[in-house]
Amino acid sequence: MRGGTSKGVFFKKQDLPADLAGQDAVILAAFGSPDPYGRQINGLGGATSTTSKVAIIILREGEPNTVDYTFCQVSITSALVDRKGNCGNISSAVGPYAVDEGMVQVQGDEASVRIYNTNTRKYIISRFPLDNGKAKVEGDYQIAGVPGTGARVALDFERPGGSVTGRLLPTGKAREVLETRFGPVEVSIVDAANPLVFVRARDLGLTGTELPGRVDSDAELLARIEAIRAAAAVRIGLATDPADATRNSPAVPKIAFVAPAADYAMTSGVKMAAGEIDFLARIMSMGRLHAAYAITGAVCTAGAAKIEGTVVQEMVSPARAASPEVRFGHPGGSVAVKVTMEAGAAEPAYVVATVYRTARRIMDGHVYVPAALLG
């Protein structure tokens, strides 16, 4: 299924081995990973981080119209299936999948499916139109990074703060200085839907208007970005040292760099006007610049824009600071997130974030793996 700007293979949990090691072996074989050539030529993987994803779904017992959803990021070149965080884009296809598979009961013209993401232990409410009891696919809603239009899927991320670390501000600070092998850098570390470390684009020698080709072709820049991300992973307790973070936690935390709003040319060649966005943001995905923007990253980025003192908040103009909608530009266009946040004694409480996506089933059938992996 395509969900938002990502594509993944959806499995029913009962069709996979019960143990995680067995699941990993089947998933890696199905995707053609690890592939030292980086092509996943021997499986279903698409040879990019955004097309090498898995959703494992099962009906959640005791809770009506609710499914358990586990997200897996499949490494292309190593034997790693990372379950540390969630993917918001893939999340947008979970509700339609559950409806079309008959896992939840729906009636009328609109479905409302509760999704429990096991990675983050958070709930997402998915709302989308129906067509004869199935998820509607065709519609007039367009998202940046996906050709054409589709039926709109609304996702309410409930209480997304502390998805992995247990705190919206994992270190208790809105900004701090990380020491890396390239020197110190000021960052903000925020955990909402997924943990992110934010850095100013100018502190990387960038403008924030860069497209993937510019970033991905600069080996030294990529090394600096990964050094910051790895240092943040150590800082919030997800790795013992930077090498461990790079090897065993490549997907979490994610890293994004931000800059004030400016005109720029998107990957389509069309111009994005500074007046249409609040600031610029670019997010990395498994060591490469995301062609659009991860939706869990968008939830976190929008939340960070509402937290006093973060490097993201300083990019927002005073005229836009009070708006509940946060809009920012990425390589493929822009994304808007509606944020509800409340004051708290120690840190703000992130109540809900609402984003909109589209999704569709691409195919269904069988994928073949060595019989020995299935016992």
Please tell me about this protein's structure.
With 375 residues, the chain is an alpha+beta fold. It folds into 2 domains: 2-152 and 359-374, Diaminopimelate Epimerase, Chain A, domain 1; 176-339, Diaminopimelate Epimerase, Chain A, domain 1, CATH 3.10.310.10. The protein is 17% helix and 33% strand. It is built from 6 helices and 21 strands. The chain has helices at residues 20-31, 88-100, 212-216, 219-235, 242-248, 295-305; strands spanning 2-3, 6-12, 53-59, 66-74, 81-82, 110-117, 122-131, 134-135, 153-158, 176-180, 183-192, 194-200, 254-260, 264-265, 271-272, 279-285, 288-289, 325-330, 333-342, 349-357, 359-360. Helix 4 crosses helix 5. The radius of gyration is 20 Å and the shape is globular. The two termini are 27 Å apart. The mean pLDDT is 96.
Residues in β-strands, percent: 25-35%
Q: What's the total helix number?
A: 6
Q: In the CATH scheme, what's the topology name of the largest domain?
A: Diaminopimelate Epimerase, Chain A, domain 1
CATH superfamily of the largest domain: Diaminopimelate Epimerase, Chain A, domain 1
What's the number of domains? 2
The chain-level mean pLDDT equals 96
CATH architecture of the largest domain: Roll
Query: What structural category do the secondary elements indicate?
Result: alpha+beta
Overview features:
Diaminopimelate Epimerase, Chain A, domain 1, 19-stranded mixed sheet, two-stranded antiparallel ribbon, 375 residues, 2 domains, globular, alpha+beta, single chain
